[in-house]
Design a protein that fits this description.
- 43% of the residues lie in helices and 21% in strands.
- It contains nine helices and 14 strands.
- α6 (221-230) packs parallel to α7.
- Residues 1-9 and 18-23 have low confidence and may be disordered.
- The protein binds D-MYO-inositol-1-phosphate (IPD).
- D-MYO-inositol-1-phosphate binds at residues 95, 115, 118-120, 187, 189-190, 219-221, 238, 240-242, 245.
Amino acid sequence: MFILYRSQVSAQSVFLFLIRSCSSNMADLWQNAMDHAVAAARRAGQVVREALQDDRKVMTKSSSVDLVTQTDQKVEQLIIQSVREKFPKHRFIGEESVAAGEPCVLTDGPTWIIDPIDGTTNFVHAFPFVAVSIGFSVNKQMEFGVVYSCLEDKMYTAKRGKGAFCNGEPLQVSNQEDIKQSIIATEFGSSRDPEAVDKIFSSLRNILCIPVHGVRGAGTAAINMCLVASGCVEAYYEIGIHVWDVAAGSLIVSEAGGVLMDVEGGEVDLMSRRVVAANSRTIGERIVKQIDSFSPPRDDASSLHKH
Ligand code: IPD
C-alpha cells in the first residue's frame, strides 16, 4: 500500500513537472519569437531609414492611391526569410505577399502578421511617421505585438498578459471618460469610392460636432493604435484597414488597458477591416454611435472562397 502511494505521488509529480516544463518551454518559445520580432523590426527600420535617403520608386496596388515601393517588398522578404530560418514551421500573412497572391488566412498555427511599412504614403512623401508592424498569433489569439516607429526610434511591444511597453517603459491608456475632453484619431484610408468617402466624412462630422477636443491621424494605423496605448489620444477608429495594419497594435492597446470593438459595437474581427480601439468601453461605445458604418470586402474573402 505504502509503495503504491509513493509511486502514485512520484507519477503525479513527474506529470506535473512535465506539464510545467512544457508550458514554460512554450512561454520561452514565444519569448524567443518575440525577441526575434524585435530584432527583425529594428533591422527593418534601419533599411527603411536608409531608403528615405534615396529616390523612392512608387508603384500602385488596388488603386492609384494605394501605394507600394520596392522597400516595402524588400523589408517584408527580409523579415520573412529571417523568421523562416529560425521557425521553419510558422506561417505568414504579409501585406506584400498577399498583394502578390499569397492567401490571407488565419489558422490555429503560429502565424506572423507583417506590415513591412505601415504608412507607405507617409514613407513616399517623407512624412515622418512610418512603422514596421509584426503581430504573432497562435490559435487565432495574438500572443505578442511589435510596432517599431522607425523615424522616432520608438519600439512598442506587448506580450499577452504581460503589459505593453514603449522602449521598455510601461504604457497605460488615458483615464479620460468624457468624450468632450478627448482627442480621437482616424484616417481617410485609400478608398476613393464616393459612397465610402461620404460615410467617412459623415462619421468625422458627427465626431467633431460632439464636440471633441480634436481629431488627428498619424498616417499609420499601427502608430495611431500605439498613441491610444500611450494615452495621447482616447480612441482610434477606421474602416478599410487590413489585418496587418492592426494585428500588433490591437494587443498593444489591450495590454495597455484599452478595449477593441467593431465599428457597430460587437466584438472586433481583425479580418473585417473595421476597428475601434479606445481607452475605455465608455469612449469606444460613444464613438460607435457616431460612425456611419459600411463593410469593405474582408481580408480573408478570397481565401474563404477557396477553403
Ligand atoms: C495604411 C495606413 C493608413 C490607413 C490605411 C492603411 P499601409 O497602411 O495604416 O494609415 O489609413 O487604411 O492601409 O498601406 O501604409 O501599410
